[in-house]
Amino acid sequence: MPVPNEMFMGKRLQIAREFRGLTQKQIAEQVAASPALVSLCEAGKKKEPAPDLVEAFGVVLGFEPKFFYQPITELFLDQECSFRNRRTAPERLKNQIRAHGNLIGMLIERLRTLLNFPRLNVPKIPALNDEEIEAAAERCRHCWNLRIDAPILNISRVVEHSGIVVVPHVVNTTKVDAFSRSGQISIIFLNQTIQSTSRWIFDIAHECGHLVMHAGIQTGDQNTERAADRFASAFLMPHKAFAREFNMGRFSWKHILELKRRWRVSAQAIVRRSYDLGLINAVTYRQAFKAMSAKGWRSQGEPYEPAFQNPEVFSVALNALGSKVELTLEALCRDLHFMPSTFFDVTGVPIPVAKTAPILAFRKP
Q1: Is the pLDDT of residue 134 over 80?
Q2: How many other C-beta atoms are found inside a 10 Å radius of the C-beta of residue 13?
Q3: Where are the beta strands (DSSP E) in the chain?
Q4: Which residues contact residue 113 at a Cβ distance below 8 angstroms, ignoring those fewer than 6 apart?
């Protein structure tokens, strides 16, 4: 392999390695190098690694050698990213998910040169206390032209119209429900292993809370996670409208499930929201959660889950390739210098296998 004219980008090696969940020691063993050499390459201190070493990196990690020589214009930094359940997620897993986000970002950046993505329109509203959080959620509804007295029927579509790309494909783990990144390329990743639609909806609203309230703030501690939960509740169940409907019936599971069908949130979220708004007292709140545990709703899932609605922007953009625009999936994969298997790992979309003509053509009898 000839040495490219471009400079080797160590950060791309780090992204590729972390995406595969490997340590520097592990990849060093696989490419017959020392961990110190891998570290120098990633830090940019080894500006011209041997061509065979770069090729070996590509073979192990699933990228063409040219991948490591492209500039990075939109790097996902730690302070720009939020993880749902960050406190229980090991650092290595968070690095892996952030690396996945970087690769999706590269793909979206290329797609934006061909397709008109919705303009980014995410209000930045710092909020420190419950009153400010409630106001931020209400302002966000106004900004996105949503009624303040009605449920959100399709939160994925609402969020994507605001320019945030929702990706239902992230590293397979139970330790992180969702991940978001705030920037020119703003993304919400969702854990596709989650079976509860109402939990999926709440996770999107939770990540919206981070994007709206916590720009440039390190998230993941108890305060920022609680604030994002409060934002999600207020955004999905606006104070006045929800309180009015909650008070139309006495507290019963029949009433709670009726509210669930209307507001498209979990029974757990409804009980918590009613407690936060002072509509039920602490005794009723605690007894309700004990009852939900006994019913198996907190561990095995709740009844009357909303219909699942897939995010659209990412899949529509990929489906447009080869039909609405000349660039095909295969060509996009080549442009990014991903191996086809890596493209599938990143996007969940397989690269079509090219059909080859037969070597022999048989005459008709």
Answers
A1: yes
A2: 26
A3: 81-83, 165-167, 178-181, 187-190
A4: none
Kind of pairing between the strands at 187-190 and 165-167: parallel
CA distance 86 to 218: 11
HEC letters along 277-306 = CCCCCHHHHHHHHHHHHHHCHHHHCCCCCC
Give the model's confidence band at 188: pLDDT under 50 very low, under 70 low, under 90 confident, else very high: very high
Q: Around Cβ 97, how many Cβ atoms within 10 Å? A: 24
Residue 55, helix vs strand vs coil: helix
- Its pTM stands at 0.89
Q: Dump pLDDT digits (tens) for 237-263.
A: 999 999 999 999 999 999 999 999 999
SS3 label, residue 63: strand
Query: In 3-state terms, the chain is what percent helix, strand and coil (to 5)?
Result: 55, 5, 40
C-alpha–C-alpha distance, residues 347 and 167, integer Å: 9
Q: SS3 for 3-36, per residue?
A: CCCCCCCHHHHHHHHHHCCCCHHHHHHHCCCCHH
What's the distance, Cα to Cα, between the start and end of the chain in Å? 49
Helix/strand/coil for 76: coil
- Strands of the sheet containing 187-190, edge to edge, are 81-83, 178-181, 187-190, 165-167
